[in-house]
Amino acid sequence: MTLIRSVWHTLQAMERSSFHNEREGKKGGTAYDTSLTLLMKCKGFFYVQARIWKKKGMIIMRIMLKDGSVKEYGQPMSAYEIAADISEGLARVACAAWVDGKVVDLRTVIDKDCELSILTANDQEGLRVIRHTASHVLAEAVKRLFPEAKLAIGPSIDTGYYYDFEHAPFSREDLDKLEGEMKKIIKEGRKLEKFTLPREEAIKFMEEKKEPYKVELIRDLPEDAEISFYSQGDFVDLCAGPHLMSTKGIKAFKLTSSSGAYWRGKSENAMLQRIYGTAFNKKEELAEYLEYLDNIKNRDHNKLGREMELFTTVDVIGQGLPLLMPKGTKMVQTLQRWIEDLEDNEWGYVRTKTPLMAKSDLYKISGHWDHYKDGMFVLGDEDKDKEVFALRPMTCPFQYYVYKATQHSYRDLPIRYGETSTLFRNEDSGEMHGLTRVRQFTISEGHLIVRPDQMVEEFKGCIALAKHVMTTLGLQDDITWHLSKWDPDNKEKYIGEPEVWNQTEQHIRDILVELELPFTEEAGEAAFYGPKVDINAKNVYGKEDTMITIQWDALRAEQVDMYYIDQNGDKVRPYIIHRTSMGCYERTLAWLIEKYAGKFPTWLCPEQVRILPISEKYAEYASKVEKELKKNGILATTDNRSEKIGYKIRETRIAKVPYMLVVGEKEEAAGLVSVRSRFEGDEGQKTLEEFISRICEEIRTKEIRRETVSE
What is the mean pLDDT of residues 297-322? Predict the structure, then answer.
């Protein structure tokens, strides 16, 4: 059987080589033609002989299918041929195959026992193959219409696919033209063919095509890597696959947007143009997704937050420097006061207030100057100025010196410092977006100074606080947990010895397992001084951002000479936990806007009640109601405009105010208010005292009322 497989692989290699030579227009002379003829005869003989072996009961492989049944074959078969043998209908809808846990191309030849599933568009991995092929069709369309464009990368992603090009920005009109060209390519129904080349030939091949990004990708591949390409007609792209058998397999697609993107995600590299698209197996599925996209665009905080007058940006102020307007400021103020009271009164924190800048000396001691200087706003010139300052990118070194100002005993620990910290980070202009990626922001920062024997329990306490905050905000189901580790292959990025890193990472791993928190591990994402837990969430477009971080630091106390006196009178280095309980207030506000589509829980709303007098005659009673509400800490306004009550109600509904109180003759006479809410619509008449009692309870408990009606 080994000989059979060896012969088969030799025939396959010869066939791939002949295909490549034909595609390149190379001729091999008489010897080449003779070899090619021999190849065809050998392959034909092989198939005939395989059928004879099969009749004689000679089986070279057994394939276990998804349903547990087994197929037996007397010769190597491609995944596509096996699909066709199972069912012609299955072969028609097949996108890829799953072989022993790995997704492979339908062209993949199977020559040994394995487990096999044929993937269709109903499988997530099958859909990814459709989208990956669509990205190649997009690349071909771009090269047809914009031949000067250079190709970079074009993967499938959770929501579709994208392709990066070196080219001027693409307009919506350009995208529409590209869609038309893609339809032509799909209609042509070109087969996708896979071939491989040796490294030097592959480099030369892409150099001749003047594709520098592809050349760079090839050079960065491991020496033993298979360098594969896919062709569809005259278009060829460097790619590992898998792909559909033909472009005709793309049934429904759409180019959704374009934006700038740095080559390989690094700001020091060239800015490319990224075109996003999506593809589905059915037009109905595409239509449903495009409707969903329209919906999330309406939830996009960068759009909705401006419409609701929560924040704005101004060119003359600068990118990444948003202005919080009164309503947005009120929301952030509510969040800040809640977090500060929560930490101080229930979780044992003490407040600090530290400077917004410091001399470079502080950051050199803490290690930030060596590891984080490029991300800081530096004030002054190191070569000319006696003193150079920098705006703080974090608060930890400042709170270290608060701790160092007093000598501490082991009995004093843990000490939990909290600060509402305004920080500054020199983000690249291309990274700026609304409230989620800014250059100045405020966080609920804290540092816990603990004895080593207290570290595990205090770390658990930080996780518990973060979970409490997320649950109160109604965000607990939208987060993912990540253990961010160091990269042992890039030691210069970090301080400390490998054994310390391995020990601390294992401590965090054990904690997450004990708390039964599902988590992934991400190498290379740790801070330079220690591993961390990152609590992430996705925005409406699926991009993941870190919302909360809890970091284990067993190293920095040595750098800053922090110590406590133990029970023996000796100086001992403490451990430090760097953490946020909510994270960045600006980013949290963006998250809340998108989560609730602007319909915030009542306790968070910048306007909780709007009073609507039916006419000017009842303005005085409306004013009395407003004063009583404000006396009880309720954020209330009155609409005294000379408009019809129906118009006022519609305006209030559009403004997403949780409650409106309609007052007129009957209400004034009986001391009542007519209550309408976002949650239940018309809630009827209530005494003012009854309404105040109910809404105050809702605000105090931070209740998240669900809407049961749609007005």
Answer: 94
Cα(483)–Cα(512) distance, integer angstroms: 9
Same domain, 342 and 461: yes
How many other CB atoms sit within 10 Å of the CB of residue 7? 16
**What percent of the chain is modeled with pLDDT above 70?**
91
Q: What is the pTM of this model?
A: 0.76
- Residue 161, both tokens: 């696919």
pLDDT in tens, 219-242: 999 888 889 999 999 999 999 999
CA distance 538 to 240: 28
CA distance 275 to 258: 4
Residues 148, 163: one domain? yes
In this structure, how many other beta carbons lie within 10 angstroms of the beta carbon of residue 238? Answer: 22
pLDDT for res 2:
47
- Domain end (from 562, 596, 630): 596
Res. 513: pLDDT tops 80: yes
Residue pair 591/475 in contact by the 8 Å Cβ criterion = yes
- In sequence order, what DSSP letters do the residues of 51-108 get, joined into one string? HHHHHTT---EEEEETTS-EEEESS-EEHHHHHHHH-HHHHHHEEEEEETTEEE-TT-
Whether the CB-CB separation of 639 and 651 falls below 8 Å is answered with: yes
| Residue 546: both structure tokens together | 């870190």
Find the mean pLDDT for residues 405-413: 97
Angle between helices 124-145 and 172-188 (to 10 degrees): 110
pLDDT band at 383 (very low <50, low <70, confident <90, very high): confident
The first and second tokens of residue 319, run together, are: 């990118």
Domain ranges, residue 640: 602-700
Q: 281-317 burial, b for 16+ CB within 10 Å, e for fewer?
A: beeebbeebeeebeeeeebbbbebbbebebbebeeee
- What is the per-residue pLDDT across 542-570, written as a single tens digit (0 to 9) for each? 888 899 999 999 998 998 999 999 999 99
Q: Which residues in 466-561 belong to E strands, given as ranges? A: 479-485, 519-523, 532-538, 544-553
Distance CA 486, CA 528 (A): 8
Residue with tokens 């609920």: 444
Looking up tokens 């406590």, which residue turns up?
564
* CA dihedral sign, ordered 66, 69, 72, 73: negative
Residue 275, amino acid: I
Phi-psi region of 379 (alpha: psi -120 to 50; beta: other; left: phi over 0): beta
DSSP assignment, residue 437? B
DSSP character for 209? T
Please indicate, yes or no, if residue 613 is contained in any of the structural domains. yes
Model confidence band, residue 10 (pLDDT cutoffs 50, 70, 90): low
Evaluate if residue 53 carries a pLDDT over 60. Answer: no
CATH number of the domain that residue 563 is part of: 3.30.930.10
- Contact, 275 vs 141, CB < 8 A? no
